[in-house]
Amino acid sequence: MHRDVLAIVLAGGRGTRLEPLTRDRAKPAVPFGGIYRIIDFTLSNCLNSDVRKILILTQYKAVSLNRHIDQGWKFLCRELDEYIEVIPPQQRIAEMWYQGTADAIYQNVYTIEKAAPRDTLILAGDHIYKMNYAEMIAFHRERRADLTIACLPVPRAQASDFGVIDVDSAGRVLSFLEKPKNPPGMPGNPDMSLASMGIYVFATDVMYELLFQDAAKKEASSHDFGKDIIPGMLADSRVFAYPFRDENRKQAAYWRDVGTLDAFFQTNMDLIQIDPILNLYDRNWPIHTYQPPMPPPKFVHTDPDRRGAALNSIVCQGAIVSGGQVYRSILSPGVRINSYALIEDSILFENVEVGRHARIRKAIIDKDVKVPPGFDIGWNRAADLARGLTVTEDGVTVVAKGEDLERFMPMGG
Q1: Which residues form the Glucose-1-phosphate adenylyltransferase/Bifunctional protein GlmU-like C-terminal hexapeptide domain (predicted)?
Q2: What fold, for 5-270?
Q3: Between 20 and 30 A from 66 (CA), which of 74, 171, 309, 316?
């Protein structure tokens, strides 16, 4: 166990591009893959890397995230000096919300000091990937680095969404450009750029000094690691790039920012492929989560026109497919599909109930929605928009948590 390392997970993002899924919850708390939340991947990486001192910094709409951590992640033992602790904004230093990633850490310096870590691992709570942080920490210490930044090659056309790094032959960072309009290509591979993953290992004493210097600038800084801290330390500090080593054990490295509804939908749909890109079945690198105490999934009725079946789909505990047909979809815990209903290419969150003869295609339906009998979702874009539902560029219809669809039914219907 890395007793001298503290992991800090930044989990305060609004996730506005994921609305309405983030209408009632922070982005890291959005359900993923049937039984998981997005933050489970970062936390599982910590656990599997033997990093067991973890602070989660929350901010917006944190109730759902707090509940999930309390239910599924409170098994670490304080007596053995291992813990996962949720830290809401303290406003200990200033009466304001976090102004940026660096300010979020700065406002919690007192809590970090109590843990007295030699190195501080800073992570985002809203990415899907598998990574052994222990190897990155070893790399950081071998090079006596002040800061190590995890990075991966991305197509240059997409690199404007990232911090872009230029390195020398020894891997030392020469420049760091935050979301540049014209990102530089990699040496020898001009169509690709080296992108920061937002995963940092800091020598803690160096980090303190940088944070205090940045805080003193007040309005002259946006208090962000990518925009302010990292570019400002390159001249005088040892900053290295760490090439992402994927624990997913597939041919291509897997790292996803499910920042938009279409990216979220596609990343979920990847899981139901015959050989999914993201390997959830590796017992050497388990993804932990809260598992509600529910019975196994159940399939009811065998009549040719009323057969309970799910094909090329993920069906979670407590789900009942009662005489309906499900194709290429994800049914979360407690979902019920009633007779003659048809579900295609869709993601149904917990406790969604689909009435008889209802049809759902290419949709994301958030928790606790009751789809009325005979109701269609995803079959008519104009009709979905007229009901006030969200329809994405790629044509995915999204129904918000607890949405009352009965109000769209004709009187007496």
Answers
A1: 295-399
A2: Spore Coat Polysaccharide Biosynthesis Protein SpsA; Chain A (3.90.550)
A3: 316
Q: Is residue 163 a known part of a binding site?
A: yes
* Domain extent listing, the chain: 5-270, 298-408
Burial 241-255 (b: 16+ CB within 10 A, else e): bbebebbbeeeeebb
**How far apart, in whole angstroms, are the C-alpha atoms of residue 178 and residue 220?**
17
Residue type, position 351, single letter: N
The candidate with the shortest Cα–Cα distance to 42, out of 317, 258, 347, 316, is 258
Asked whether residue 98 is marked as a ligand-binding residue, the answer is yes
- 295 burial (CB, 10 Å; 0-12 / 13-18 / 19+) is exposed
Query: Which DSSP string corresponds to 44-95?
Result: HHHHHTT--EEEEE--SS-HHHHHHHHHHS--S-GGGT-EEEEE----SSSS
* pLDDT tens-place string over residues 288-312: 999 999 999 999 998 888 999 999 9
* 272 closest CA partner among 219, 348, 169: 348
Instruction: Report which DSSP code applies to 246.
Output: B
What tens digit of pLDDT does each residue of 72-84 get? 999 988 888 899 9
What does the alpha-carbon distance between residue 329 and residue 338 come to, in Å, rounded to a whole number?
A: 15
- Topology of the domain comprising 298-408: UDP N-Acetylglucosamine Acyltransferase; domain 1 (2.160.10)
Q: Would you say 333 and 316 are in contact if contact means Cβ atoms under 8 Å apart?
A: yes
pTM, two decimal places: 0.93
- Written as six digits, the tokens of 275 are 């050989």
**Each residue of 233-246: pLDDT tens digit?**
898 899 999 999 88
Q: What is the DSSP string of 277-329?
A: SS----TTS---------PPPEEE-EETTEE-EEES-EE-TT-EEES-EEES-
Query: Would you call 141 helix, strand, or coil by DSSP?
Result: helix
Q: Is the pLDDT of residue 111 over 60?
A: yes
Q: Which residues pair with 91 in a beta bridge?
A: none
44: left (phi over 0), alpha (psi -120 to 50) or beta: alpha
Residues belonging to the chain: 413
